[in-house]
């Protein structure tokens, strides 16, 4: 077992070299707490132990991260879990093949609405301070109906990127309440660090982004948190390490060493006794540049829901390693693909399903860490069918019945059906 100096938070074992030699990996990231594993690997010696140097480059948007990886300005990147899936499907601008051999964990997202909207929800539906995600969504639907009858403009809601967990989770929450995300509201892209200011200025009426920006808005008194990622689907992958397939094929040993370093960093991040050191590093201007106390409470799942003192403890708000949180499971990539189909971003056919599943690479994970670190169930499994891992609306996703799953939603916006070879 690697011995950690808990005072300094650094790995005490010496660096390990290999036939590929020590390497500097340029890695793009967005200032979010879910970059913790990548930051910890760079700052606390885990990469160094594997003969790697991580040159972390803070970026301003997911589109930039995507493009800079494609144009070889980055070797690896902190990426939204749907981004490699979209890339392998050829979706979006400048699609370039991208794979994910490692997930950076689960959790970290939340949905925040303006305090004005939340007060209207309280008036319309008598929604309580402890309302569930589904109750909040239904209350929001009542407010939207009132606004429609009064001729008010539809609310503008921010999310981070069209092919993002935030987009799909926001849409899932809205649709579960009977709201059509493409008709009843206006969804726009807002970079995470700008969401709180945009909400305060009235440029948006709500947003779904990663920590710590939801709590920043709530503590400023401009927003109310109404749902977290765990409320929508606890096992949903959040961020991954993305890389080009050709780079991975030409640097197999470096990929394995990187995964070993990230695995060790993820284990370290999961221990609460390391959170003070982690929060202090994340708060630095080089990384998130947010108050260290907010980051510390976010890591512990201690939420300030609003500026009135209402609080909520979210167990396992971040899972950096536990529960096989780093395993890149293809059935989760297929669920992401199902949401792309549901919202008209992708067509449904067997070739596309195979391409979507190929974005997540458990084979590279197993090569680096061995079978003892992999989950006991199949790579492609039924999702949302176990206690503690339910979708908020009670749906169950069976990848073998992908078409039936999408058809079963009452709120959707699928592409016109055109039969092709190999329908799912």
What does this structure look like?
- The protein has a five-stranded mixed sheet, sandwiched between helices. A five-stranded mixed sheet has the order 10-9-11-8-12, with helices on both faces.
- It has helices spanning 36-43, 46-49, 62-70, 82-88, 115-125, 133-149, 165-176, 195-201, 213-219, 229-232, 245-250, 252-269, 275-282, 292-299, 330-342, 350-357, 362-369, 402-407; strands spanning 4-5, 10-11, 23-29, 52-58, 76-80, 99-103, 106-107, 109-114, 156-159, 186-189, 206-210, 223-228, 239-243, 302-304, 311-313, 318-319.
- The protein folds into two domains: 4-106 and 238-290 and 320-373, D-Maltodextrin-Binding Protein, domain 2, CATH 3.40.190; 109-235, Periplasmic binding protein-like II (D-Maltodextrin-Binding Protein, domain 2, 3-Layer(aba) Sandwich).
- α6 packs across α7, α8 runs parallel beside α9 (213-219) and α12 crosses α17.
- The protein is 38% helix and 16% strand.
- The protein is of the alpha/beta class and 424 residues long.
- The termini are far apart.
- The longest helix is centred in the middle third of the chain and has 18 residues, at 252-269.
């Amino acid at each position: 077992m690697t011995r950690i100096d808990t005072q300094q938070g650094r790995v005490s074992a010496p660096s390990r070299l290999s036939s590929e030699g020590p390497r500097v990996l340029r890695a793009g990231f967005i200032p979010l707490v879910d970059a913790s594993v990548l930051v910890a690997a760079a700052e606390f010696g885990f990469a160094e132990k594997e003969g790697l140097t991580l040159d972390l480059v803070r970026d301003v948007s997911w589109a930039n991260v995507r493009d800079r990886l494609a144009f070889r300005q980055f070797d690896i990147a902190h990426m939204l879990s749907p981004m490699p899936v979209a890339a392998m499907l050829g979706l979006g601008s400048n699609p370039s093949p991208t794979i994910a051999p490692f997930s950076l964990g689960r959790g970290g997202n939340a949905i925040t609405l303006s305090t004005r909207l939340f007060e209207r929800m309280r008036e319309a539906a008598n929604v309580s301070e402890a309302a569930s995600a589904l109750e909040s969504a239904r209350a929001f639907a009542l407010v939207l109906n009132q606004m429609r009858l009064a001729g008010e403009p539809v609310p503008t809601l921010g999310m981070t990127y069209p092919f993002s967990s935030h987009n799909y989770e926001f849409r899932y929450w809205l649709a579960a309440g009977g709201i059509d995300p493409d008709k009843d509201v206006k969804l726009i892209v807002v970079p995470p660090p700008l969401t709180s200011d945009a909400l305060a200025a009235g440029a948006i009426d709500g947003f779904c982004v990663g920590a710590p920006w939801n709590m920043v808005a709530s503590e400023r008194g401009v927003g109310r948190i109404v749902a977290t990622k765990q409320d929508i689907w606890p096992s949903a992958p959040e961020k991954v390490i993305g890389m080009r397939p050709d780079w991975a094929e030409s640097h197999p040993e470096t990929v394995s060493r990187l995964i070993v370093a990230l695995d060790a960093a993820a284990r370290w991040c999961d221990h609460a006794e390391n959170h003070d050191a982690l929060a202090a590093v994340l708060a630095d201007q080089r990384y998130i540049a947010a108050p260290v106390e907010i980051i510390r409470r976010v890591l512990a799942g201690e939420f300030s829901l609003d500026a009135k003192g209402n609080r909520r403890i979210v167990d396992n708000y971040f899972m950096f390693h536990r529960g096989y949180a780093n395993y890149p499971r293809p059935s989760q990539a297929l669920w992401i693909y199902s949401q792309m189909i549901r919202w008209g971003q992708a067509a449904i056919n067997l070739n596309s399903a195979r391409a979507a599943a190929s974005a997540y690479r458990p084979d590279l994970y197993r090569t680096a860490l061995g079978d003892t670190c992999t989950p006991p169930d199949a790579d492609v499994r039924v999702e949302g069918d176990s206690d503690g891992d339910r979708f908020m609306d009670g749906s169950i996703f069976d990848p073998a019945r992908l078409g039936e799953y999408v058809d079963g939603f009452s709120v959707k916006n699928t592409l016109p059906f055109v039969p092709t070879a190999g329908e799912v």
